[in-house]
Every structure is written in C-alpha cells, then in structure tokens.
Amino acid sequence: HSTLLADRIDYQRGVVRLFARRNNGGVQSYTAGGDLNGNYRIWKRDFRTSLGFTAWNSRRNPYDHFANPDFGEQNAHIGTPVRSSATALGFDRIEIPLNNVRAAMDRLINIPSEQYRIPPTAQIGTLVDTTESNVYLQQNIEVIPNRLIITGAVSKIYNQANSENYTAVPPTTFTNTVQENRNNRNLHRFGLVLNVTKNIALYGVETTNVVFINSSSRTADGSFIPPRDGQMREAGVKASLFDDRVSLTAAIYNTYYTNWAVSRTGAVIPEYGFNVFDLIRDSYIKGWDFSLAMRPVRDWQVMFNLTEQDPRVQATNSPLPSSNRGSWSVFTSYKLKGDVLGKFRVGGGANRFRKRLTGASQLVLPSGQAGSSLLPGGQYYLKDGTMTTAFVEFNATRRLSLRLNVNNVFDEVMVVGAQHWAAIDPSQPRTFSVIVTYRY
C-alpha cells in the first residue's frame, strides 16, 4: 500500500513536511515445539519436572520501503517542493503551511502502490530470514510440605538472522548484500513460594531474559543492533481472603537492561537507507504493582490494578526513552436480579497510562528549539488519556445471547500508542458493536 508520512513539523516556520512511501512486504512463519511434564513424590515430597523445546523460522520478504520520487511533482501546486539530498529524481517532500494542512490533505494525490516506479539505485528493501530455537528444563521441589516450594529453570536460546539488502540497478536487475547475525544466550529463572498461612503466600523470583532485535534495523554505522539483555527481580505477597471473595497481589520489582535500542525517527531514514537506532547501554525500571479482585456481593465483580514505576537511564539518571511512569485500570460487572432483569449483565471499565515518552526528532517548536532537546534522548511526553468501555449482555435463552459493547464511552481524543511524534495510533471515536452468540 501507499502511505503518507509526516517528516517534520516546524512551528517556528509554520509548516508540516510530508512524504509518500510504498510499504510492501509479506511474512512466512513456521513453528514447532514439544513439552514433557511429570509429577512425582520422593521422600514424601512433591516434585515436578518439565522439559521441552520450541523452534521457529520466519522469512520476511523485502519491504519496498522507498519514497516515491514523483510525489512532489504530482503535488507541487499544494506546497513547497523540497528535494532530498538522497534522491535526484523529482521532489520527495512537500512542505505545507500549518493553516492549510486540512485543505491540502483533501487535494493530495497519493499514487497507488502499483503505480510506483523504482528509482535507479534505490534500496527497495531487506529480505530477513530468522531462525530461533529454545531448549529448557524446569524443576519444582516442595521443600516443606504445604509450606515452602522452590523452583528453578534454565534455557538455552539460539538466534540466527540472515538479511539481504536489495538495491535496484538499471534497467531491471538487482544486487544484494548478505549479512548474518548469530546470538546465543543461556538464561535462568529461580524462585520460591512461602505459604505463611493457607490463604497468604510470599514469593520471590529472579529471571534473565533477552529480546533479539529485528535484523533489518541498524545502528548509524550499519551494524546490527545487539540483543537487549535483561535481569528482573520481583518480590511480593498473594492473598485470598473472606472465602475467596477478595484476592490481592502486591509486588515490588527491579529490571535492569543493557542495549536498550531507540529509533531516531521510527521510520527508514533516506540518507541511511534503513531505520537507524541509538543504543542506551544501561538502564533500569524500578516500580511496584498492586492488583485487587473483589465480589462485594454474589453477582458483582470488581477488579482494580495500579502500577507505578521509574524508568531511568543509569549513566545520566534521565527518563528512559519510550517508557511510561505507570498505569491504572478498573473493571466491574453486575448481573441484575429478577425473572426478566436477571437475564441482563452490565459492566464497564477504564484504563489510563501516565507520562508516556516518545521520540521528538524533526519537531521544531515556535521558539526554534528542536524537539529532540526537550528531554535527553530526544523524547517528549504524550498527553495522558483515559480509555473507557461499557457493555450490556442479554442472555435471551440458554443458547442465545446478545452483547452491546461501547468503546471510548466519553468520545475522548487521545494517543493510544506511538512510535514517535509523527507515527501515532489515535483513539477511535465512540464505537458501538453488537455481538450475537448462539451455542449449539
């Protein structure tokens, strides 16, 4: 498909800059796995052993992620054409005055993807072939019957990614450069559960993890992004009280990361030909989490969750890019009473994230200050918003039920998610949906 992207917003000059790009790709994926679990008793103690493996292969076809060299020529009457230093054909950027953006967007000609022509020497994309395997062993031991359980697990992960960068050569041939990236990791997980009483338990866990970054992404020197290694420690309490009418979990946690990768723009940079990432070598997230589920009366359920955390770059003690400071959520449902009303259940909920950071590169404020200088790492805060939902469920018969869902009840405009300032997922307006279910 053909996509319009915002490249820069310059409030000092009063312009927004757009470019068009063809996005074309496909993925083939294969997965296999197996597990073996056993429960047994030795010395009057309960043991549980689990072992298994997973393996998968994913082949992602080359993206045709190149800017359309005809875009500016087709739309030169709308704004000011801007020629990119990386493209000699046509104008691949258009600058539109802020007060004319809405009218200009209605007149923009976005050429269908099938009509794109590949400019000479364009990098049309990367074929990525990824293979990963994981072998694990986990052991649970009941040290003190009904009181103390310890658990441990080890796993070995192998990841290999081959990428082929394709470049067009006139008139119809292509060249490709093959790069290979291999990584091995030995991971572990250790934990314990102490049953203080029948209804209250304390727990602690330490685990290591790794995230292998997509091999089509690069650092500025063109090298692969190294895997993101993490170590997490968590301790908490779980309780089930008042005949299981109230259950709660409270925990504190600390996660330490190396090689946290942050995209400069969230998109392919024409001057480089790929999405450039910058590495943050050491960072951490400290926080706490609280969850509560209640049944105040038989047919009324209430669930609540609250998370507070402090993501930081260790070296500078500045906020960790692409992070948030916490969230809360609440959900409730109630089944009405009576012969007729008893067929209805009503409910709803809300959730909200706090102080979300995202990239601010290529954003210029009215003062002329670059957005990338707002916070260390070129980040800025998104406006907080609360997403609300509601539903009414009607069980007409034992087999037939109808449900009316309402999303964004108060029709609030907010940013649901963002790769960076120009690539956001806006909230949908108030939306109604009806679901009819019939059980045979």
Characterise the protein shown here.
The strands form four sheets. The chain has a 16-stranded antiparallel beta sheet that branches. Strands 1, 2, 5, 6, 7 and 20 form a six-stranded mixed beta sheet that branches. It has two helices and 26 strands. The chain has 440 residues and is mostly beta strands. A hairpin with a 3-residue loop joins strand 9 (148-169) and strand 10.
Count of runs of 4 or more consecutive helical residues: 2
Main beta sheet strand tally, sense and closure = 16 strands, antiparallel
* Sequence stretches where pLDDT stays below 50 over 5 or more residues: none
Given helix and strand content, the structural type is mainly beta
Q: List how many beta strands DSSP finds.
A: 26
What's the N-to-C terminus distance?
41 Å
Question: Notable features of this structure?
Answer:
mainly beta, 62% strand, 16-stranded antiparallel β-sheet, 440 residues, 2 helices
